[in-house]
Structure formats: structure tokens, C-alpha cells
Design a protein that fits this description.
By secondary structure, the chain is of the alpha+beta class. It is built from two helices and four strands, in the order ααββββ. The chain is elongated, with a radius of gyration of 25 Å. InterPro entries: BRCT_dom.
């Protein structure tokens, strides 16, 4: 099995890092902690810049297209060969239609 990427919410991570950086900026003027917070602020600022630049963005995940003739693994049947294009039932205005899956696109509304 291949290694699964762990996707994170970059916006949420940036929000947390920026709050921590703001805290470091305030605390660095405290005489006892100056060097600790200066170093921490620098590291946080560098990480924030790298995330905002897209350095850690992953490539979009491409889903495989199954077509007739392909071999596949079914959860109940095991290894199978695709004999025809998959059909699905589509609902429009309370009417059902059998359509080929390959003729559909994802609607983003």
C-alpha cells in the first residue's frame, strides 16, 4: 500500500502560527525571555512565509478513470474485469434516468 498524504488546513495552521508569532513579539521585550522569543519569532515568521508561498502545497489528487477492459478489485467479488461503462441513475425533476458515469461532471453549486 502506498503512503497516504496527511492533508492539513493551511489557513487554520497559518492563523495559529500568526497568533503565536504575535505573542512572541510581545514577550520578546521581557528582559528574562528576550533571546528565547527572538529566535522563536524568527522561526515562526520563516514558516509562515514558506506556507504562504505554497512551498508545502500538494499536487491535486488525480482519481483514476475506470473504463471497459480495465481490471479492478471489488470489495465483495475480489478481482474483476470491467466489461462495460458503469451506469448510474440520475434524478432530474423527479424523473430517473440511466446514464453513463463517464458522461457526468461534478457540479460545484
Amino acid at each position: 500500500m502506498y503512503k497516504q498524504l496527511r492533508l492539513i488546513d493551511a489557513d487554520w495552521l497559518l492563523e495559529c502560527l500568526k497568533k503565536e508569532a504575535e505573542f512572541c513579539i510581545k514577550e520578546k521585550f521581557n528582559e528574562k525571555n528576550t533571546r528565547f522569543y527572538l529566535g522563536r519569532e524568527t522561526v515562526l515568521t520563516d514558516i509562515i512565509r514558506q506556507i504562504e508561498s505554497g512551498k508545502f502545497d500538494v499536487d491535486p489528487i488525480t482519481l483514476p478513470t475506470i473504463k471497459p477492459g480495465d481490471k479492478a478489485i471489488h470489495s465483495d467479488l475480489g478481482r474483476v474485469r470491467i466489461m462495460s461503462e458503469p451506469m448510474v441513475t440520475a434524478l432530474k425533476d423527479k424523473d430517473e434516468y440511466e446514464v453513463y458515469l463517464s458522461d457526468l461532471e461534478v457540479s460545484h453549486d
